[in-house]
Amino acid sequence: MALLFSLAAVAATLSSSVSAAATSGDLNILSFNVAGLPAILNDNAVPGDKATNAEHFNYHAYIYATDDHSYRTATSGGAAIGSGLNTLSNFDWIDFAREKWGTCSDASGADCLTPKGFTFMRLIVEEDAGTEAGDEVARAANLQQVADYIDTWSIGNSVVVYGDTNSRYTRSADGITVFETQNGLTDGFVQLEKGGVNPTVETICDNPSLINTCETVDKVLYRGSKQLSLEATYFNYESSKFLQSDGSILSDHNPITVNFTWAVSSTRRQSGFWGGPHGNWFNDLESLPATPKASVLSFRGGSRLDSVGLTLTSGTTLTHGGTGGTAASLTLGSSEYWVTAKLCQGQKSGQTRNFYILATTSLGRTLAAGTSTSDCATFSAPSGWQIVGFMGQDGDEMDQLAFIYAPK
């Protein structure tokens, strides 16, 4: 069983995840923005050598040379080429993507010098810029771009957004509240240090900061889901842990840490994914009634798997994919449940897609569609559970697919 949630890094790093056997645990995020442009362009008033301080953009290799995290994103390039964003993690992810800002501003500096933006991934839980008018407009557009991306690619998922937002709650034109109002995210700083009330009086943090009640532009925001709950339990500016040997700062930003406790839902689980990260994201979690049960399975397939669908006893119909191929259906009995699904994947037009599905019920009856390949995986609901929905990505065919489980 794989449990996933979405992560959007506005600017910095992350770590997270746990073993498949666990149903609860802790997740730690460290966000640290560093002045990685060549010193001739920007020294950010930080003493010391940039390579020694392991700052990013042009100094990426110095970080990775001594890092021992198991999973690390590849650099997107140095200054003027890359975004300077990377993730180091003890645990794996899928569907990693880099998104460039649609709007930038040079009103107070050279923010358009390099292709800044945000990164996105589905993490497997199992295993200050200027304030000119142009800057404010660009910043609000950037945050809106992330919020819209979440609405499209993280439907039904737990989400963590973290990094340098260049925004403050006391500057309404920044638009930082869009994550709260549009995506239902909670700011760990506001929750734990401000009693849940957004700051209305600007407080500037010293660097290094010795208190947690001042506000920086670096944020960690989150939400849980019906499948995986998240709760922020700890917030701290980890400034004393990121200093040079002489006590000087490493960056003009204070690094921040937020600890989350997470727990798997007692009524919803999911399988791992099979296929490729193409097409449009979908997730049936929000469409399921309190006690779902499949009554009819409906697939379409030919050379590949065109669509998957099921009708619940409540009357809700869930269908994903296209209209090609040959239709096949299976009506389940009142005490019969869908318990196992075999998927086979292959290559079509240079992309990985699902070619075949074989569903098996609790009575041993089967329904198949598509064409089998040699690259297959079987997903079985835990004992006492059943398959009641889907999540993944689709278009005219089934690109990526996972299954939602609920108790019988």
Automatic annotation (TrEMBL):
Keyword Hydrolase found: yes
This protein's record includes keyword Signal: yes
Signal peptide bounds: 1-20
Protein name from the UniProt record: Endonuclease exonuclease phosphatase family protein
Top-level taxonomic group: Eukaryota
A GO BP entry: phosphatidylinositol dephosphorylation
Originating species: Hyaloscypha bicolor E
Keywords on record: Endonuclease, Exonuclease, Hydrolase, Nuclease, Signal
Gene3D superfamilies on file: Endonuclease/exonuclease/phosphatase, Jacalin-like lectin domain
All residue ranges annotated as the Jacalin-type lectin domain in the record: 279-407
Pfam families, per database record: Exo_endo_phos2, Jacalin
InterPro entries, per database record: Endo/exonu/phosph_ase_sf, IPPc, Jacalin-like_lectin_dom, Jacalin-like_lectin_dom_sf
Molecular function per GO: endonuclease activity; exonuclease activity; phosphatase activity
